[in-house]
Amino acid sequence: MKKIRIVFWSILILVVLINVSPYLWMFINSFKTENEIFQTKIFPSALNFDNYLAVLIEGGFSQNVWNSFVVSTITTIICILIGIPAAYAFARLDFKFKNVMFLLVLFITVFPGIFIISPLFGFLTRIGAIDTYLALILPYVAYFSPLVVWILTSFFRTINPSIEEVAIMDGCGFFQMIGKIIIPLALPGIITVSIIAFTMSWNEFMFALVFTNTQSAQTVPVAIANFSGIHSLNWGQMTTAAIIATLPIIIISLIMQKHIISGLTAGAVKE
Amino acid sequence: MNKVMSNKWVIALYVLPSLLLLGGLVYIPIVLTGYYGLMSWDGIGEMTFIGLDNYSRLLQDSTFWLSARHSFLLALFSTLSLIAYLAISLILSARLKGSELLRKIYLIPMLLSSVAIAQLWIKIYDPNNGMLNSLLTFLGVENPPAWLADRSTVLIAIFIAIIWQYAGFYIIIYSAALKGIPYSLIEAARIDGATPFQIAYKIKIPLITGVIKVTIILAIVGSLKYFDLIYVMTGGGPNGASEVIASYMYKEAFGRYNFGYGSAIGFALLVLALLTTWLIQKLTASKDELQY
Q1: Which residue of B has its CA nearest to A136?
Q2: Do B112 and A8 touch (CB under 8 A)?
Q3: pLDDT at position A78, please?
Q4: Distance from C-alpha of B14 to C-alpha of B4, rounded to nearest angstrom
Q5: Residue B99, H or E segment
Q6: Residue of higher predicted confidence among A31 and A253
Q7: DSSP B36-72
Q8: Which residues are bridge partners to B40 per DSSP?
Q9: Integer Rg of chain A from CA
């Protein structure tokens, strides 16, 4: 048992190091001056926020953060609004072609998005949406809502149907029952999928790269990718931009990590 | 209640918004991509029907086959790495303190944007000031490789970054599946004198084969369509040495405005993805599912 414990802890420590050290290294670098980055010292001589100021204010990165925030928030809200009723129907109601429809939804969660990028580009150009928030929200909702529906369906299935029957018998209307009983009971699931939908929209790169082309609509990932083009030699600012882009997600993940894990495993593990 | 629940209009009201959206923005475009593949089109001007010309060009296009080979190598690499993830998850499933901490830490890379991860690894692999080469120089290695700039090391360097990104996802899935195995089963095996290795190999792994199958499919399909990290880290370079199917399709469609040919590449990608999924399903189809 003692041997096992030693192996266990050495693997644990190694894995933690491999996982965390690149990120920590980048975080520390974001406080260094450009000269300090190229020295061998690990820590900066003083905390230096120049990189943050340069990226957020001069580089206009705050506009990209705002774009990402708006696009991700609206996408999440729409995904939830259309996801809850669809998931409820798949979990509880009986109708023709239900399984076929559910498969059509599920298929999209593994479908390569790049496959439909040309027709989507054509469609978004025709409706004049290219380089607006709409050009991102539409494909994001289409592409991310299936995962929302899938996870919510498995959450709804875990709720005991007799609760709903009792409520109906006690004279609770159908829509009232959904709003007052189902949604509160499924709230942990709804929080989970909201976080997942928000994170996926926040991080999405390929659609954003193709469907936006100015800073007025470009999201954080595209801005970071472009950073290497425009300021190719400024390491400090590039790492800082990457840190700013990931910080909100890391904070959310640490606060909500239980929810995220239960959501991620709901799809693959349950049934 | 049954009256309301079987009402067609209620059902339609519930499912239609979602289905209409998916139909319009995913399924119609799938058909359109198939259609574009038969055309010569620059995205703006007139389309000309050229039949299967795009596909016969595809068969002779050495860049396509090179990128297909890289995509398959990535798929193979990702699938093999599942063994390591499974091993780590099995070790963590020993109920020791610290497992929870590890899960927490493993969650971070998978929630980060691929682009930020790409930037991070560009810095790590930088030939002169990167973390890796600084470490190698410190350890006394002379002339460490240039990693992303070197044709012979670029693929493996990118694969390692991708594996770093996805490790957490698979470990979390495996850990959750292993947690679902009743403890009494393992306890019984232990009382009968089974070693931890035997318990893992003969009890735990067979009981989670369903989940393992899902992860194999996810790893293969995910690898075949992989784009983000490669596009940002190398753009497929140097000289096509890290080109994959998705990055090649992007270049043809949005770099050279060959929407017809790009769609044909995309179609090949879809067929490959579906074919491998089907093959895996076929190969791993077990006659009797194990249950506890």
Answers
A1: B25
A2: no
A3: 95
A4: 12
A5: helix B99-111
A6: A31
A7: HTTEE--SSS--EE-TTHHHHHHHH-HHHHHHHHHHH
A8: B48
A9: 23
The architecture of the domain spanning A54-268 is: Orthogonal Bundle (1.10)
Return all residues near A264 (Cβ < 8 A) that are at least 6 apart: A196, B169, B172, B173
Q: Which two tokens stand for residue B268?
A: 């090949």
Chain B residues close to A264, C-beta within 8 Å: 169, 172-173
Chain B CB contacts of A165 under 8 Å are 1
User: What is the rounded CA–CA span in Å between residue A111 and residue B22?
Assistant: 12
CA distance B233 to chain A (A): 9
- The residue ranges of every structural domain in chain A are 54-268
Give the residue-averaged pLDDT of A188-201: 86
Between the CA of residue B255 and those of B92, B234, B252, what are the distances in Å?
A: 46, 15, 6
pTM, rounded to two decimals: 0.84
At the topology level of CATH, where does B61-284 sit? Answer: MetI-like fold (1.10.3720)
- Compute the C-alpha angle A22/A23/A27, nearest 5°: 120
Instruction: State how far Cα B86 lies from the chain centre.
Output: 16
Cβ of A228 within 8 Å of Cβ of B119? The answer is yes
Contact A110, B221 (CB under 8 A): yes
Q: Say which DSSP state B292 is in.
A: -
Q: What are phi and psi of B199, to 5 degrees?
A: -60, -45
Kindly report the number of other CB atoms within 10 A of residue A49's CB atom: 11
Structure tokens at A186: 């499924």
Domain ranges for chain B, please list them: 61-284
DSSP states of B215-237 as a string? HHHHHHHHHHT--HHHHHHTTT-
Q: Residue A107 in contact with residue B35, Cβ under 8 Å?
A: no
Q: Per residue in B97-115, pLDDT tens?
A: 666 676 677 777 777 788 8
Burial class (CB in 10 A: 0-12, 13-18, 19+), A50: middle
Kindly report, residue by residue over B184-214, the tens digit of the pLDDT: 888 888 888 888 788 888 888 888 888 888 8
d(CA A271, CA A237): 46
Chain A residues lying within 8 Å of B233, measured CB to CB: none
